[in-house]
Fold:
Amino acid sequence: MGQPTSPFLELFRGNIAASQIMRTRNQLLLSLAVLFLICHSNAAELPKQKWKMMKDPAKHGWSTEKLKAALDFAKASHSSAIQVVQDGLVVGQFGDVDKKISSYSIRKSFISALYGIYSAEGVIDINQTLAQLGIDDNPPALTKNEKQARIVDILRARSGVYHPVDFETQYMINIRPQRGSHAPGTFWYHNNWDFNVLGTIFEKKTGLSIGEAFYRRIAVPLGMQDFKPEDVYYIEGPISMHRAYHFEITARDMARFGLLYLRNGRWGNKQIIPEAWVEKNTRADEMIRWHDADAGGYENLWWLEYHGSSLYGPGLPVGTYIASGAGVHIIMVIPSLNLVIVNRVDNDPPSKDAHTVIAAAEHTIVPTTKMGEIVRMILAARTGRGGPFKPGFGLSGDFEMDRTVRKRKNLQVPTQRKPCCVNHSFGMKVLEEKASRN
Structure:
């Protein structure tokens, strides 16, 4: 016979079971509610056929007066179009946002996205070397050591291959290191050979033109309003067998691309670019020197805010990264503010031969310093969500708070820099640094 059971014990056990069921049910309901809100939010924040304007920016923490002043300053500085997007809505814009213009070096961030897609699918192995890929170039041909460069080194502009090309500016020619001066993966140089050979490799591995792949895998899923496969054109010549590729694209389509990255590669319920690939844009470990100034980091063919510096000057919010093209054209992604800023200038070349396109690329309309001023004026127009942006700090305007944010987002923590080495080559320096780990 079993032990007699107390009615009080049975009641106690029943209450525990009921409590556990209630708690589990509440947790499930809460999870479903959060999931519903996330899905609803994602759907609401994505543009459909056309972009939607934010109805009352003042209610969303913007000073309309300061924002107008920023856009007026951009116009006076000869920007041809700007689009500012927050929470998937256009906060402010002006100019020909529907005009296709060559985007120059922004092409690199576009092809980076394609590499993210096709490498995740196993079509491209970014650890393959040039030797394994069968890549060479016109005489003087690549050396055995140069052919040890991997795709991942090229995506970081650290191939160590300094073969001349048919499309590059005079500044790039002046600072090009000597052949064989740096091993693959060890030295950053803004190298059009790297960027061009990525196009050759991509088309060889996928069997698609860059324009067709971008159209199928990015433009169509994002609902880009203007881009077509034929909007990618090529520049070739006798110096290198690897031709340059250029995108003609509108500001409003560029803003969709920026929003895709802001959403960690996700568009609605579809992951377009792997999230891990997008996250590469938030981590740098080396300070780049460009035009004799600290220019932040450079990873995955994007320019990164790093230790308070960036290509567009100091003081951008932590975690900011930028696609940048000559003129200057930008897609600036600021995850901490859920913000995308696009700038265009009307420096489209009248013809697509190498000489004309190089001349257009070398004609700077809005210098990077001026573009930095425009961006900081836009950020200063934010009056809510923690107060106005304060140049010189980062996300919050508070150094210690920024340290906390960086730790939480697994970004570099601002500390005293510890230079480990300086490389010199034809006037260009790359300062490699290590941040103290807390």
Notes: The mean pLDDT is 84. Residues 57-434 form a domain with the Beta-lactamase fold (CATH 3.40.710.10). The chain has two domains: 10-44, 57-434.
